[in-house]
Automatic annotation (TrEMBL):
Protein name: Ferredoxin--NADP reductase
PROSITE patterns registered for this protein in UniProt: 2FE2S_FER_1, 2FE2S_FER_2, FAD_FR
Cofactor(s) annotated in UniProt: FAD
Pfam family, one: FAD_binding_6
Organism of derivation: Gaetbulibacter aquiaggeris
Amino acid sequence: MSSFHNLSVKEITRETSKSISISFNIPEDLKATYAFKAGQYITLKTTIDGHEIRRDYSLCSSPKSGELKVAIKEVKDGTFSAFANNQIKVGDVFQVAPPKGRFVFEPNDSKTKNIAAFAAGSGITPVLSIIKCALEEEIHSKVILVYGNKTTGDTMFLNELLELQHQYKDRFSIQFVFSQAQEEDAIYGRIEKSTVNLIVKNKYKHIDIDAFYLCGPEAMIQTVKHVLTDHGVEEDRIHFELFKAAKPAEIEEETTIASGNTKITIIVDEEEATFEMSQKQSILEAALDEDIDAPYSCQGGICSSCLARIKEGKATMRQNNILTENEVAEGLILTCQAHPTTPTIVVDYDDV
């Protein structure tokens, strides 16, 4: 199980008018704890106006850099993102959980391969880490990035990406897409079917792409996935991470939640707790109501912090954008989305 450690802010960089990057100081005795794979995220925990706030932010540094660095884009009505962009100072201390996440790139320099990434907005954050890792640790592999934003002024890490493109000019290519500006060599519009076709069937048709990494809004990810699979790309070569959950109203229409009660046993940190819960509650909600220290972060089904395994009984998930069919069949659930459907259930957070 993950535990939080206090880390101080080392450096703050203004990336755009609405986004910053933050790096943390890591004590020598915690460096192994905060080692990460490209694409993973960390959970930040703090108190704002008397309320505990947890947020996940993807690491944008490369694993070999020695930096623990995230980017935070200010969103409308965003509690933590507004606080971070306007109030955080060097030296401030946050509780930080060790890196985790399933959207990862693991380099293998013994094999030359090519990857393509599609990112929109702040979805560039984990993709940037993946790009750096591939370029640094797979010295013959090629990387293609398709990156969508409103304008150049809204483009996070623009200069850093251009510097990487110059440094690795024979191995790293960028296709910018701007929805509110017309720029030389950029596509005007959004990342859509024609954009994907341009990349895989036209501009880079001479390159055999081994893996695709997608990060951004759900609509973009679904569009890119559908076009790629229509072109015969196997699903296990398409890796994605959502940065925004579906709206609750949309979820409720798809899944019917039972209205009975369940006797639930929860195992976390090798301790068991048994109690009665309403099937209208998610398993995570019920656990937190009982003051059980279950792991969680987004509570929206787009991270894997609350992952657990059903050992007895059954549950249904309101939505699932992370687990494969095989993983669900093996009993894995996102407890923030899972509602029990049997009179008894045993859920183990340790066995994941």
